[in-house]
Write a structure and sequence with these properties.
The chain has two domains: about 5-95, q64v53_bacfr protein fold (Single Sheet); about 105-265, Nucleotide cyclase, GGDEF domain (Alpha-Beta Plaits), CATH 3.30.70.1230. The chain contains six helices and 15 strands. The chain has helices spanning about 65-80, 120-125, 130-150, 170-185, 210-220, 230-235, and strands at about 5-10, 20-25, 30-40, 50, 55-60, 85, 90-95, 105-115, 150-155, 160-165, 190-200, 205, 225-230, 240-250, 255-265. A hairpin with a 2-residue loop joins β11 (about 190-200) and β12 (about 205).
C-alpha cells in the first residue's frame, strides 16, 4: 500500500511535529483510501509514525480494474503535488491514556452530510489540475454557506463535508443554498440531515448520530436533500419547509428501520 506523509510544525506536539498521512491501495476494481493526522517521532531510519486517532477510510468502486488503476495513479499524483513524501513502513495507532479531569459532555445538534455525486468520473474527465481548482471552489462555496447559516464544520472526508447546526431549519436552509452554489461549478450533490445527541471529549465529537447522518445522505440521489424523522419532528412548527415522505429505510449498520423525508424546494 503506497503511503505518503506531509509534515508540519505544531507547538502542542511533544515531538515537535504534526502531519497528515495518506494510504492508497488497489484490489481489482476497488480502491481503498485511508487518511488522517499522525505524529512523527525521531528522524531518519529511526523515525516512527503514529495515527493520532483512528484514520478515516473510504472505498471507491471503479467498475473495472483499469479505472481503478487510473484512479489510484491520480490519487498518488495529487499527494505528490501537495508536498507529500513517500512513506515506508507501518503507521501504528497510538492509544493515548485518558487525561485526568477530562469531562465527557453530551450535546444535541442537527448533523449535515454533503457528498458530491459522481466525483470519480468528474475528476477523470477534467484531469487533476482542473479538478483541484473545482474542488477549491467547491469547498469555498460550502464554507461560505456554512458561515452564513452559522454551521460548524466538523470534518471533510474526500469530497464530502460534515457539519453541525444548533437549529434544524438552519441546516436545511444551508443544504439548499449549497446545492444552488455548487451547481454553478457543474457539480451535483446529495445531502442528508439527522438530529441527535453526540459526545464531546476534548476536541473530539463522537456518536451514533454521525453514522446515521452519513447513512441518510447515502440514500439521497443527485440533487436531493433527505432528512430523518428526527429532523422532521423538530420542525413540526416550521410551516415554511415542505417535506415529501420518502418511505421506510434500513440504514446500513444502524438498528431498526428509519422513515426518511425529502425536502421540497
Amino acid at each position: 500500500m503506497p503511503k505518503f506523509l506531509r509534515i508540519g510544525v505544531h507547538q502542542s506536539n511533544v515531538s515537535g511535529y504534526t502531519s497528515k498521512a495518506w494510504c492508497v491501495r488497489r484490489v481489482g476494481s476497488a480502491v481503498f483510501l485511508k487518511w488522517g493526522g499522525v505524529e512523527v517521532q525521531g528522524t531518519g531510519a529511526g523515525r516512527k509514525v503514529y495515527w493520532t486517532r483512528s484514520p478515516q477510510e473510504k472505498t471507491v468502486r471503479c467498475g473495472t480494474a483499469q479505472r481503478a488503476q487510473d484512479y489510484a495513479k491520480a490519487a498518488i499524483a495529487r499527494r505528490r503535488s501537495h508536498r507529500y513524501e513517500p512513506l515506508v513502513g507501518a503507521i501504528a495507532l497510538r492509544r493515548r491514556p485518558a487525561e485526568r479531569g477530562t469531562d465527557l459532555k453530551r450535546a444535541l445538534a442537527t448533523i449535515l452530510i454533503v457528498d458530491i455525486v459522481g466525483s470519480t468520473a468528474k475528476a477523470a474527465k477534467l484531469g487533476d489540475a482542473r479538478w483541484t481548482k473545482v474542488m477549491g471552489h467547491y469547498y469555498a462555496a460550502v464554507r461560505k454557506e456554512l458561515k452564513s447559516s452559522r454551521g460548524k464544520e466538523v470534518v471533510t472526508t474526500g469530497d464530502g463535508v460534515l457539519a453541525t447546526f444548533k437549529a434544524p431549519a438552519a441546516g436545511i436552509s444551508c443544504a439548499t443554498a449549497i446545492q444552488k452554489a455548487v451547481r454553478t461549478l457543474g457539480l451535483e450533490i446529495r445531502v442528508g440531515l439527522h438530529a441527535g445527541e453526540y459526545t464531546i471529549s476534548g476536541d473530539e465529537m463522537v456518536g451514533l448520530a454521525f453514522h446515521i447522518g452519513t447513512r441518510v445522505a447515502a440514500k439521497a440521489r443527485a440533487g436531493e436533500v433527505l432528512v430523518s424523522s428526527a429532523v422532521k419532528d423538530l420542525l413540526k412548527a416550521q410551516s415554511t419547509i415542505s417535506f415529501r415522505d420518502h418511505g421506510m429505510h434500513q440504514l446500513k449498520g444502524v438498528p431498526e428501520r428509519w422513515r426518511l423525508y425529502r425536502v421540497e424546494a
